[in-house]
Amino acid sequence: MSSVFGTLFRVSTFGESHCPAVGAIVDGCPSGMELSEADIQPQMDRRRPGQSELTTPRNERDLVTILSGVENGITLGTPIGLLVHNRDQRPDDYQDMQAIPRPSHADYTYQVKYGFRAGSGGGRASARETIGRVAAGAIAERYLLREHGVEIVAWVDSVGHLDAGAIDMASINRQAVDLHLVRSPNSIAAQAMAELIAEVRDNDDSVGGVVGCVCRKVPVGLGEPVFDKLEAMLAHAMLSIPASKGFEIGSGFGGSRMLGSAHNDPFVQKGERLGTSTNYSGGVQGGISNGESIYFRVAFKPPATIGIRQNTATFAGADTVLEAKGRHDPCIVPRAVPIVESMAALVIMDLFLRQEFRLRGR
Amino acid sequence: MSSVFGTLFRVSTFGESHCPAVGAIVDGCPSGMELSEADIQPQMDRRRPGQSELTTPRNERDLVTILSGVENGITLGTPIGLLVHNRDQRPDDYQDMQAIPRPSHADYTYQVKYGFRAGSGGGRASARETIGRVAAGAIAERYLLREHGVEIVAWVDSVGHLDAGAIDMASINRQAVDLHLVRSPNSIAAQAMAELIAEVRDNDDSVGGVVGCVCRKVPVGLGEPVFDKLEAMLAHAMLSIPASKGFEIGSGFGGSRMLGSAHNDPFVQKGERLGTSTNYSGGVQGGISNGESIYFRVAFKPPATIGIRQNTATFAGADTVLEAKGRHDPCIVPRAVPIVESMAALVIMDLFLRQEFRLRGR
Amino acid sequence: MSSVFGTLFRVSTFGESHCPAVGAIVDGCPSGMELSEADIQPQMDRRRPGQSELTTPRNERDLVTILSGVENGITLGTPIGLLVHNRDQRPDDYQDMQAIPRPSHADYTYQVKYGFRAGSGGGRASARETIGRVAAGAIAERYLLREHGVEIVAWVDSVGHLDAGAIDMASINRQAVDLHLVRSPNSIAAQAMAELIAEVRDNDDSVGGVVGCVCRKVPVGLGEPVFDKLEAMLAHAMLSIPASKGFEIGSGFGGSRMLGSAHNDPFVQKGERLGTSTNYSGGVQGGISNGESIYFRVAFKPPATIGIRQNTATFAGADTVLEAKGRHDPCIVPRAVPIVESMAALVIMDLFLRQEFRLRGR
Amino acid sequence: MSSVFGTLFRVSTFGESHCPAVGAIVDGCPSGMELSEADIQPQMDRRRPGQSELTTPRNERDLVTILSGVENGITLGTPIGLLVHNRDQRPDDYQDMQAIPRPSHADYTYQVKYGFRAGSGGGRASARETIGRVAAGAIAERYLLREHGVEIVAWVDSVGHLDAGAIDMASINRQAVDLHLVRSPNSIAAQAMAELIAEVRDNDDSVGGVVGCVCRKVPVGLGEPVFDKLEAMLAHAMLSIPASKGFEIGSGFGGSRMLGSAHNDPFVQKGERLGTSTNYSGGVQGGISNGESIYFRVAFKPPATIGIRQNTATFAGADTVLEAKGRHDPCIVPRAVPIVESMAALVIMDLFLRQEFRLRGR
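ok -> structure tokens follow
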């Protein structure tokens, strides 16, 4: 298993669905930054289950504790230990499913790969694994914002067939995103999305969606060609989030249908640097940030755990019918918003530390 | 710069557009495999420029030499040095462009990040950087095919607005793909694609496209949750290819519009293992291969270097008009086919070596 | 800061001297192994401060808790979270020393590198940092012993000028080592060592020493030439332990004075494999284990924190006299014994997982 | 096999004893540095075989070619490909030894680990593997010297039982070291060492030795606690050199015999920083450089390939007598001097790039 992410800003996470605690170690955080639990908790609250009627009824407060790396409210440069206790564990909910791997869930592949798997709730494949990502990401984005003004904002771009419509990526902020439980900024679309999720939930079904994200004020020069291009690291990070199935940056799949003469972003002088008058590139050229806003989209499939009866097979291969119990989200994208932001922050922070600042401005 | 890829099967590449040679070191290749240049050259030929009227007129034979790691035609387990000479260098073609960064190319970001940049042809951001990937990938896919029967086949899935139509992923093979210069298996679509590329070429413009890829017979159990899920590694690999803008696996972005009850892949007994009767998952569940075919799509933007006049700015910020010279591909996807295959092979090979085989089948 | 060790068996540690807790995450532990806190605690007890009159009077029980990765007493293959609370914190002991960097301690270099440093007790440079290593090492050695019979035993080989004398590396075990508080197996030498440590302690001084270690029954073939040779990884691991100043394997520095004709280890048939009749190589040839016992020695300097008055300078550069308070070990080697064992286990475990078992026995 | 070294300044090497070429890729070299083959060749010449009567008669000119990463004599920031052809190959010399593993050489362990091994001359375990290290190291030390004034000088500290005597580490330089073929700066000792090596050579035997090394003017703050302490990285690097058996930094093993009151290095004001009046620490405290000279010693065993008759066993386990043919060094330390310097440069360079310069001087 690979539970470490990053080269210089390295995050290790641990924890299954129903063990005593989950958490993370953040190694490589620069010293001298003010940090307390209060700086991390808001993103934890945006991620936590049970936060609204649109999410899983599993109710966890997910209070984070800093165990190390901070003294007198200032980071020491040493690893930051982060802990969150699991409280609302109900392993019994899952006992009926021990003989039947849930379709499109990780039950079967974990069984083959590890021989053993957590007996309940998805184990390491549970969404609770993302707690460590969000806690670590909150630290990264705090550094990026305070030291360099980097702003990272994600939103729900679609739920099922319902699209959010045009987004003003220059101005969108978390307050606007959080106005609606579904975390989509357009009121009319948000209302329709919430209704769709409620309908799907009431049908014991689930639905997919897309999260959009913009990273503003990222300095020029981040990203390590050839293999660790900025977009490659973002794609790696986003496809490591449970249930994600796709990633596109800038013009993305749509850009593949365009001509170069229309797609190229002309350069123009912007203040002291060159900028571009359009941004089909999504803020990245040659794998390196160009100073324009980085924006990308992440596709999430419908959650695999559904209450509807499914024809499938047991681990032993016998035909069976599964009615999954346990608590699950009818649609993951509202809660995926802070996870996408956190993973983006981890990528940018790591590339930031990897950048050779000695050479800058030559 | 980060020119090393992989954890146990590690590939390091070097080379710019107009230096004496490009190449790679493949570290971690198992010993005891028959290997000669003849096993690598076919993919080099599929990647090389000048192979057809649809590609750049730069003409390179790209003959690969094995410098080490093989004795008497057998791999030793030691690093395999691979070398390809650059022959058709014409640095003079690029002298007019020294003062003007090409729009949507890496000229500007390289200048800011490195202070210096190769004076010609894109330097490290040139497509010649991918030679090392393809040479290394050919070794990986040879191992995977011989030892485990893994078959990796990519094809052109769209060019601009032209789609290849339905592909039979169970049977598609490289011979069928190569029947048409454009490397798309449907004759009617391939003909239209070729005409579109020729038209775009004649207009000094360029066009984007999408490459599809399937990996058959990958054993169950590959992929390292949490952060190095199989799909995360594939996304990382694919977004590191020059000009790529998007990645989707299985149902991808389309899957985000579906309900769980339709999207879940029911289990059925298949021979000695569990299989699934549909494959929206794209062969991966919980970040681990499930024994079904892995398939994914990669979006490529139109090449940035075009001959059409473009209004843009000089490095110094002055308004200017650029008519780019130099030789370039009007559409990258026919040559991207072996690159996508190679990167897929590198990912699967590395995850293969990382898998704990001691525990298998417990 | 780099608090992650290993390639496939990866250990991340956190914790300073006086923060709420210290601990580790062990990623990559194979699934299916019986494991509980009781398997880890014995090595924690051998490492803990306050265990005898020869160690620091700081008294910590250092009880370890497993937070994740184990269910029903069996490892899941997921990361194992390990936690130990700091209890006997006395930050006030250190307030007088805020203006004066302790000679040969990390106070000054941490201040320069991080701008900030933990206000008390050495922070991350405290011996408490080694708790995570020992907890993780106990898991690694449990796996190595149960699955492959690997036995790792360290002992105190010298204290100051007092040597332990000849050690029978074929039979030495932890019970014999622990017969004496000083952890040296020769009773006469152990008595003298204990007296020397007591004398040094009573003088508010400190003394150095050497730890020897043998790893028996390591299978042939572990170690990754060129750069990750078995001895290179061991040297890395041992020199990362606080206060270590030297490492030698097999004949070591003494071997540099020998002739090849005397130093070479002749091969002889041993059971089903080739063995050697002497073992100046220390169980490693060409960076790869050869099936003989691996043995090495690690030199430790005298602890830097001493009560004796020292002429030195303040951070500001003014001449001063320091009488260090705080609790410290007069000699670190008795407590270093389990730390050396643990780091050896982490190295062997990681190289074990990196070994290509597919090819074994060809 | 692990042929990649470093985190940000990453060196990949390839090549066996008798393949067409050996070389390296240096990834992560900063852009904008003047560099040509003439800057690398001097260290290649100090390493090359056949340079004097004290080394192996295998005669290689070892001319290095830069294949990429440099344009118009300036580094681009892209990977630097380095190539050296093998010329004086005589595989036939080794045919008699195919059935008999050389005692204390890597023949046996390579056979077990890889199933195959290079048929001649030690393959990857040959000293020719170190060519890539020296070529890469020459680039690193050029950068460190030009940008930061870092001076790295190694010398032969002992040959067999003959010691070089006191060395003035503040002034020793390569010119003084190279005055004598044996690369030891004391004329009387050097003469005796040369005679010992000649005698050993004439007896078809070999002898070990120790290389000392000092790194002057390394800035304060390099080294990444906990696991990548400066001394841990140096130990890793040095024990990865073929035939090395030990490493000690500062007071080393001798320091283990001292009292803390004598061993501690008192602080004194030195210019604008704190320095120490003694340097038992060897320039490192808490794993971080403290601004004093870093010095260390590396023990090398006598070369394993000797012409004297040795009683040993065949691969099949039968008793036999081996008279090894092939060309070998009677003593490796004169040629190890540039290798030790190069590995030190690689370590310091990598830690230099890993240092967070943003925070410096806060």
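The longest strand of chain A covers residues 151-159.
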